[in-house]
Structures are given as C-alpha cells and as structure tokens.
Design brief:
By secondary structure, the protein is of the alpha+beta class. The chain has a domain of about 140 residues: Sortase (Sortase, Chain: A), CATH 2.40.260. About 25% of the residues lie in helices and about 25% in strands. A hairpin with a 5-residue loop joins β5 and β6. The radius of gyration is 22 Å and the shape is elongated. The termini are far apart.
C-alpha cells in the first residue's frame, strides 16, 4: 500500500473539516450582521422613547443618531461617526457635520457608507429624488436631490455649509475591484421646507 493511499482517508477528512469550518465562519458573519441590525434598530427605538443615547450592545463605540430612507428602499439606521467599525454596520454621520433636524443651528448633514453595501444604489439617484431623514426626536425631514459629483478626497474638501442640507458620500468607482482609492461620489440634497409641500 502506498503512502498516499494510506493517508488518503485522513487527508479527505481534513479537507472536509476545513471546508465546513470555512462555511461555518461565513455563516457566523452573516448571522452576526443580521443580529447587529436588529440590535441597532432596537437601540434606535429605545433612544426615541427615552431621548438618551442607547448603544446597540454594551461594548459598542457608536450609537444610532438618525434613520435614512432613500426612495423606496428600506430605512437605514445612521450611526455616530464614520470609523471602520461604525461603517461595517451601517451608514455613519460625519462628526462635525450638521445634526439631523437641528434647524436652530443649520449645517449640512454628511452621511457616509460603503459603496458595496448600504450605498450600493447611490449612483442611481437622479435630481429631484426625495430622501428622508428621521431625527432623534422622531420627526422626518425631506431632502430633494440637487445633483451628484465625483471628487478627489486628497485634494478637495467636503462642501459643508451653514444650511440644512444633506450630503451623501461613498467611495468611487462603484465597480472598482481594489479598495482605498481617493475618489468619492457625492450626492447633494436640499432641505425641503415642509410649508412648501402639498399633500395630493
């Protein structure tokens, strides 16, 4: 009996075990992502009820600050900050930009997300499209898309102004294979005054 034939069953068992371990790891990541979304959504509801910051889990370094609804898509919970940890679970509010719903001290609200997850359809938004943003008091604010632009993050700054606007940011190009490039895709949206809207 050759050495390969003698160790064949062991090699097969090892390969099957490693394969099952890899599948289990992938399933564990998907399960964690689903549970995280539930916990984040639950912490947003608790925050609306209590008016106090509610972390989705005790060791989280972020917390919900708003809800974002783009067109007919499912509403997304926006997290505080744009660190890699925050963006792994949802869109993030850029620290130093405008607080959603703060019309007393208006400032452009900047929300960033990954191009291949939460903002994967950002490139399909056309001028005139409506985006809704729920603030921490539970009020919804409407924004109308003015336009979009590709910028180089190494040479240009985000246009944050003292107006109640919305700026959505993601990496560009959308179909890039490598990550970490300097290009960013920006969508500008103007705040819609509720007085100027008419119910049909």
């Amino acid at each position: 009996m050759t050495r390969i034939a003698r160790f064949g069953p062991w090699i097969s068992t090892l390969c099957i075990t490693v394969g099952l371990w890899q599948l289990g790891g992938g399933a564990w990541l998907l399960l964690k992502a689903e549970v995280a979304q539930y916990l984040i959504s639950d912490s947003w509801q608790r925050q609306l009820a209590s008016s106090e910051e509610q972390k989705p889990w005790p060791w989280a370094d972020t917390w919900p600050v708003a809800r974002l609804k783009i067109g007919g898509e499912k509403a997304l919970t926006v997290l505080h900050g744009t660190s890699g940890q925050a963006l792994a679970f949802g869109p993030g509010l850029l620290i130093g930009s405008g607080e959603p719903g703060n019309l007393a001290e208006p400032r452009t609200t900047v929300i960033a997300a990954h191009k291949d997850t939460h903002f994967r359809n950002l490139g399909t938004l056309k001028p005139g499209a409506v985006i809704q943003l729920q603030d921490k008091s539970g009020r919804w604010h409407a924004y109308r898309v003015r336009g979009s632009k590709v910028v180089n993050s190494e040479t240009e700054r985000l246009p944050v102004a003292r107006v109640p606007g919305l700026l959505l940011v993601t990496c560009y190009p959308f179909d890039a294979v490598t990550v970490g490039g300097a290009l960013r895709y920006l969508v500008y949206a103007d705040h819609v005054d509720p007085v100027s809207t008419v119910q049909m």
